[in-house]
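Homework help board

Subject: predicted structure for assignment chain

Our instructor gave us this sequence and asked us to write out the predicted structure in token form, then describe one feature. I got the tokens but I'm not sure how to describe them. Can anyone check?
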Amino acid sequence: MLFYLSFCLLTLRTNAQTNNPMADGGNDTKGFDMAPETRLAVVEAAVAQIPTSLPPGPFAPTWESLQKNYSVPSWFVGAKFGVFMHWGLYSVPAHGNEWYEKHMYASDSAWHVEHFGSQDKFGYKDFIPLFTQEKFDPDAWAELFKKSGAKFVIPTAEHHDNFALWDSAVTPFNAMRLGPKRDLIGDLAKAVRKQGLKFGVSNHGIENFQFINPPPTLAAKLKAEHADLYDPKWADFYNVADRSDAACEKFLVNWYARNVELIDKYQPDMLWFDNGVDQRYLDPLKLRVAAYYYNRAREWRKEVSLSTKKAAYAPGGKNTETIGSIIDFEKIGARSPSGIRTGVWQVDQPIGSTWGYTSDMHVSGPGAIINALADTVSKNGTLLLNLSPRADGTFPQAQQDTLLAVGQWLAINGEAIYDTHNWIKFGEGGRQAGLNIRFTVKGDALYAIILGNWPGNEVILKSLAANDSLVGKITNVTLLGGEGKLSFTQDDAGLKVKLPASAPCQYAYILKISGLKMNPPTWTKSGNPQMNAGFGGN
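My token output:
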């Protein structure tokens, strides 16, 4: 219950509370933020080892070429809701969080030793045979995603731990050769697309190079024994024993090869990178990935996009000037826009208290997720909801129940979510000001999403008070999922709508208001916000 309440507080913060209307920051240049701790010369040496030829097409590995030729995929503009997944070896110990590999050699060393034995006898690599996915049913997963109302699916193809969930020819540490002994990404891609959903992949692998940092005593012990982190057979899995410039070059070349392999084998509709690609010295490498990906997509005749954080694909250092990528924010309220941000953007948000599956994780109920979805879409964003599958290939019932309830709500109310954009303000009210309402627009229909409890016999929308700021005249008000027109009056206090005796659904209730002239769609070809567009808060 406490987790649910804290989640609701997070998702319903107002512009005034966070003072972060567009989240228009850039990279934090004070640290490496999970990127390999190297320099431009090493990256350029790695790029020089990559084959120079690219697939035919208009994209060259330059910012100018990306800016000229890139366009946000039309399918993404109206999708508004997708599912993400932290799917990997860390779900075997199911302890702490998805950074178990990092912590088991440091802060959680004692817990690991107690439950699995000392690191020289049982290292992170030894979780691979236990990551069986024996109950993984890609068709059942895809059906669940479809029923949730999601329009696209992005599983983690590789997390910080360097284990590839696909059939790979460029790394031996993959799910076809070890562990499940099947192409998890390939099987899921087929099932998801069979349901008519878009399919992407996320790759966090660049963060592996310096992910593990054991304390000196443990490092010395393992090194002396040539065990685990210092076992030559696993050196390229852990990337601990050798962090020389030459080793970094080799790592970066392989990172590029893994991305090319993912692109060629699975034709992802979106390729999503975590914070590790943010640093400017990585630009020559990630420009090569972008040019390769977008030229291949032209061959496939598909609309695709990278999605990255902060200013990873913004050479000027501001995420409002991103080139060739859809900006992604991590967690609602923490880093995402607190007000309207035009263009296109998405926010990735965990369904529970951890990103990867843990045995004691708390899972948010459907009300919290619907609140998060409505709040995000009212600000012109897209919600990417992270799920946490178990090591056996199943989703806990609590996650399934939340997804199915969200899907049932969207079956009634999706008209106010899909293919919509922001109004001139994202909402009104709030926890300290009566009703909490969010607005969306489609064509000349205005949707007022009433969050929380059913308001009773009447609702007053103060933002629709009779004044000169509204163009047109309200002619019709209906309740999505309800029957017939609702009676209403409009005066200086607002639009007063009489409600039926019972609600047509749970969690949030939507009025469709017709007759006013609405603002046009606010997406942009580049995905960047329309500067000085004049949109306000709640």
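Reply (TA_rk): Your tokens look well-formed. For the description, you could write something like this. The longest helix spans residues 245-266. That's the kind of observation they're looking for.
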